[in-house]
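Example for tutorial group B:
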């Protein structure tokens, strides 16, 4: 992502001064992904808020994410409406309420494409797949970590500037997507999605849930 998470000003200097630092960083990413890896199928609850200058309040939905294997992901919205979107390879199928199902290319949905690439690769423990799509930027320690993902594809950067994943130990807690149009989507997953929602949730509340993993 350009990553808006907290960054260490010493890391670039260390990479210049210490030849083994880049190898160490790779090993740390490998260790994190090994902890995050889940056999398919795997499911997790989610709570998502979309923030836009065009909206008076965030659009908040909740439901379940299903990791169905490499390149396969289902997103099931349960509140405040019912919708199922399923990504298989580069194809997306979408059905909302009683409407007929629709299918379209993943190329038309950059946010879903980034979600698939990041979420599926994280749960698949696949660093090569992540590095093919993103530049990685890991900070923190085993218990409290932040992983920044900056798209490598210039076309993807026209839509998604960056993603930041916050987590604790072997559990991702939150994924923030920073879009090129200055909209932001905050996705709480796992334990992060189980926190009771306040009557008027705002960006500060969602940021606090994300950074709860850092405390």
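The residue assignment follows.
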């Amino acid at each position: 992502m350009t990553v808006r998470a907290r960054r260490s000003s010493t890391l670039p200097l260390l990479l210049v001064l210490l030849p083994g630092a880049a190898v160490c960083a790779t090993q740390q990413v490998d260790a994190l992904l090994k902890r995050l890896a889940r056999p398919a199928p795997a499911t997790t609850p989610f709570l998502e808020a979309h923030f836009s200058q065009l909206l008076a309040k965030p659009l908040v939905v909740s439901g379940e994410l299903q990791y169905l294997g490499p390149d396969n992901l289902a997103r099931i919205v349960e509140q405040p409406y019912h919708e199922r979107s399923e990504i298989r390879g580069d194809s997306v199928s979408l059905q909302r309420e009683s409407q007929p199902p629709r299918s379209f290319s993943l190329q038309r949905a950059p946010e879903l494409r980034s979600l698939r690439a990041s979420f599926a690769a994280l749960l698949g423990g696949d660093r090569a797949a992540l590095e093919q799509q993103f530049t990685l930027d890991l900070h923190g320690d085993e218990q409290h970590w932040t992983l920044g993902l900056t798209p490598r594809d210039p076309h993807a950067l026209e839509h998604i500037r960056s993603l930041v994943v916050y987590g604790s130990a072997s559990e991702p807690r939150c994924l923030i997507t920073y879009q090129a149009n200055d909209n932001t989507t905050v996705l709480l997953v796992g334990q992060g999605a189980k926190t009771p929602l306040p009557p008027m949730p705002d960006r500060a509340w969602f940021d606090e849930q994300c950074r709860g993993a850092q405390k």
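The two ends are 23 Å apart (CA to CA). Compare this with the pattern of hydrophobic and polar residues in the output above.
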